[in-house]
## 1
Amino acid sequence: MFYKVTANHDNKGIDMLNQARKSFLSLFVAATVTGGIGYAEACSRILWETEDYGVFVSRTMDWFTPSNPTVEVRTKGQSYTGYDGEGALEWTSKYASIGMTAFGVGLVDGFNEVGFSANGLFLDEENVGEIDDSKKQIVNTRFIAYLLDSFATVEEALEVVEQLQVHQFGEGAHKLSGHYSLQDASGDSAIIEFVDGELSIFHGKEYKVMTNSPVYQQHLKNWEEVKPSNANEYQGTFELPGNVISSQRFIWNSYMSEQLKEPTSYTNGLAKLDSVTYKVPNDAANRVVDGEMTGYDTQYTLTYNLDQQILNVRYQYQDTYTHYFVNFEELNDGENYTLQADRADLFGDVTSEFKPSLGTMANYYQ
């Protein structure tokens, strides 16, 4: 189903937030101004519902500079503000969650203790339009955390999303833009986009793949035009787009994920889904930035099962090449914890490596 809807920090926390904002903006401006680029290519997400082992989710983070990621566990009962201005959404978390941050400004992915998950991927076209005073306001770098904190199902989240305006993080012409995928333990799924002042929602289990620009409706059209007409066409001779731009990654991820067969275990399911999720090779040419050809490498892949509640991280960027996992249930003890996700010494079960820390979202405490 597709439809549109028209539409108090301490000084230390403020200093941390301002530093993170400056760090991100300096990198983003370098790409958008000196490179003169249009679409930025970053990330893929795939959802896979199975008969015996529940719902699996995989997402990549593809970017052209280090994203300084941390894995953070946040307990329930913490109160946040979503916007630095009038009409700000304020909330107190109902659920504990685990997620991945980027650039020290917010969460880009995660799941909560009741099996609800959300992902934020880059989308150039995001534009909230004029502020609507009848709606609550939230910045997109805080949106994933709000969703994880507040909802148990996709249906619950969609009932509230229509009452919100999601603003881009950044200043002037240089802003972080995104669109958002939601999923829950029933296999329900939704894609949310705020474009030209309108909210577009694609709701249903069929919306299993998301990448980046263009807008989601165009991706669906592209897939319909090229997808195999019957099961017999899924074979090695089928001509498949496979370059690194998001329109081709959407088709690749759709084609490969359609062929997944029922897993024999949680581990087998994680391995299967991770294997089909498109990963942009290191050094693969993407676009010219500041006179030089630049790539948007896959820095890491997150893969998890919404029943199992274990976050698997495959990090493969610069001088770090690791594969590790975190048992969320063991850390869900009423405290907040943080782990630097790009450490080169992380392998296997790293649950014990987490340290008590308020984390990134503490910048937005009420």
## 2
Amino acid sequence: MATAKKKATAKKATKKKATAKKAPAKKAAAKKAAPAKKKATAKKAPAKKAAPKKAAAKKAAPKKVAAKKAAPAKKAAKRKPNAAFMAPMTISPALAEVIGAKPMPRTEVTKKIWDYIKKNGLQDKANRRNINADDKLSKIFGKKQVSMFEMTKLVSKHLSAAK
């Protein structure tokens, strides 16, 4: 008799392990059956134990990602500016009315144009990506309204390599 009980408990244990691996939809079906209520509660307990392990694994993964992100930050600090961006450019007379005639790099040209736009309130109120050109800027852009992404393309036509 004792061996029969041991076999029965062993079968129940293997069933519990097998049902813990089944899909959640089958667990919901087991809950509906009245005699299976005790088994459903037993199934929930292993599932709760398994969930923290998954959460711990997920928590460990972001730490690795954070470590990877930290390494490129050090590389960014060592990065030197590209000499092509720092080369002084000759400015056309139309653009010189806005930012000055002195040769300067592209980056400075863009900064000075933005200073002019902000100083004169030329950014569109409804859509901040658009710039409403005044008389000076309309000579450069060729139209009354330009998107900020299109602006640099239009300004580059007024720049040439310094001699």
